[in-house]
Fold:
Amino acid sequence: MILRIIIFITVTWSTIVYAHNNDFEVSATSIRSTFFLHVVNYSKWQQSFMSLKFCLIEQESQKHYLMLNESDLLNHNKKQIQLQQVDSLPTAIEQGCNYIFVDKSSESKTLYKDLKQTSLSIVTIGETISFIKNGGLLSLIEEYDKIRIYVNKEQYADSPIKFSARLLKYANFTG
Structure:
């Protein structure tokens, strides 16, 4: 019994120290960043890639890019992912990005126009429902302190990219 108490205290103390030393914070940004990796891992492409390029269009603070770049999440991922910060959708397409995340501050009429002309072979991810309504494939929306996955049903039906049932069971389809 005493051994169990000692193990419990040791594990609990180690967790507290680890969280404090690594500034571990559970936020919408950290959860959304983790979801990015789930989207990548649970995507099935018609062609195979040696590595996948995940591009982020963030105007404000590049918080998702910094979170992924500074964390160890990419190193423990099933697939090899290259992370790149870009300034626009056309630039992301020129760079050969497979996944493009657009933060809500980067959404605009110009972006929506570009989205409608974007190839369906690119996974576009946003943060708002208007992103999906204007041609995006999926959005990771914060609702009641949780991140919900919304998928544009029309875009998904026409897309050569398919998501596994493990991801789709949490998705809400719209459009």
